[in-house]
C-alpha cells in the first residue's frame, strides 16, 4: 500500500520543527491534523446537579492540564472565587507550573509528585491529611484515584467538570486517506460513531499505546502500525519507518 495522504488525530503542531513536517517533506506525503475527539467543560447547570461545593474544600488535585483549564473556566462561569489560601496538589511538576496560567504560583501552596503517577502523589497528600481535597475529573475515568484516596483515608470529593466528545466528520472526508493515526481509544470510538459503516479496505491504521491498539482490534479493524517499539519510541519515528517501507 502506497502512502500519499495521512490523517493524524491530534491538533496541528505549533512548531515548524515538528518531525511530522520532516516526514511529509522527506516522502512527499500530505499529513493532515485533526482530532477525532475534543474536551469540553460541563455547563454550570450540569455541574450544580452534582451538588458539590468547591469552596467546602481546602485543596485541589490536578491530574492533567485539561483538568486545570476546565476547573478554572468553570469556576468563572459558576462565579466561584478561589481563595488565596487554596492549596494545589499535582501529579507532575509540568502540571503544577501550568497553574501559573490562572493563579500566582507560590511554592508553599503548590505540591507535585516526582513521577507523574497518581500513586506517587498520595504520600504527599497523606502528610497534609487535614486538608479537604477536591478532585476535578473527566466523565470518562477509572477508579484508581478514588480507590487510593479511600484506602489512605484522605478526605476528598470527586466531581465531573469536563467531558470527551466526538468531533463531527463528513462521510466523504475519510475516503481519500491512505492512513489514519490514533492516540486514544476515544479516537477509535469517534471513528466508529462518525462512520458506522466504515470499511477499512486498504487504509492503514497506526496507533500509539497498548490501550489504543486493543481498541483498534476490538473494533474489528486491522492494525498496521503500533508504537512505541524498541526501533521507534515515538509515533513520528514509527511513521517514518512505516512510510519508508511502504513507499519503496
UniProtKB/TrEMBL annotation:
SUPFAM superfamilies: HemD-like. GO terms for molecular function: uroporphyrinogen-III synthase activity. Pfam families: HEM4. Residues 24-235 form the Tetrapyrrole biosynthesis uroporphyrinogen III synthase domain. It comes from the Bacteria. One of its GO terms (cellular component) is cytosol. GO terms for biological process: uroporphyrinogen III biosynthetic process. This is Putative uroporphyrinogen-III synthase.
Amino acid at each position: 500500500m502506497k502512502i500519499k495522504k495521512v490523517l493524524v488525530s491530534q491538533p496541528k503542531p505549533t512548531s515548524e520543527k515538528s518531525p511530522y513536517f520532516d516526514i511529509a517533506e522527506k516522502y512527499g506525503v500530505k499529513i493532515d491534523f485533526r482530532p477525532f475527539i475534543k474536551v469540553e467543560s460541563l455547563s454550570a447547570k450540569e455541574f450544580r446537579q452534582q451538588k458539590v461545593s468547591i469552596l467546602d474544600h481546602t485543596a485541589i488535585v490536578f491530574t492533567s492540564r485539561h483538568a486545570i483549564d476546565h476547573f478554572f473556566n468553570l469556576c468563572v462561569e459558576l462565579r466561584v472565587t478561589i481563595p488565596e489560601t487554596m492549596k494545589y496538589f499535582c501529579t507532575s511538576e509540568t502540571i503544577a507550573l501550568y497553574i501559573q496560567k490562572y493563579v500566582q504560583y507560590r511554592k508553599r501552596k503548590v505540591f507535585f509528585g516526582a513521577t507523574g503517577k497518581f500513586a506517587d502523589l498520595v504520600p504527599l497528600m497523606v502528610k497534609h491529611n487535614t486538608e479537604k481535597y477536591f478532585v476535578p475529573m473527566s466523565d470518562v475515568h477509572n477508579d484508581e484515584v478514588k480507590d487510593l484516596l479511600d484506602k489512605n483515608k484522605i478526605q476528598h470529593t470527586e466531581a465531573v467538570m469536563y467531558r470527551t466528545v466526538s468531533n463531527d466528520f463528513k462521510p466523504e472526508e475519510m475516503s481519500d486517506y491512505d492512513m489514519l493515526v490514533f492516540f486514544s481509544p476515544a479516537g477509535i470510538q469517534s471513528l466508529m460513531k462518525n462512520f458506522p459503516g466504515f470499511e477499512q479496505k486498504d487504509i492503514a491504521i497506526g496507533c500509539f499505546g497498548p490501550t489504543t491498539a486493543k481498541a483498534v482490534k476490538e473494533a474489528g479493524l486491522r492494525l498496521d502500525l503500533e508504537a512505541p517499539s524498541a526501533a521507534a519510541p515515538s509515533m513520528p519515528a514509527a511513521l517514518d519507518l512505516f512510510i519508508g517501507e511502504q513507499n519503496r
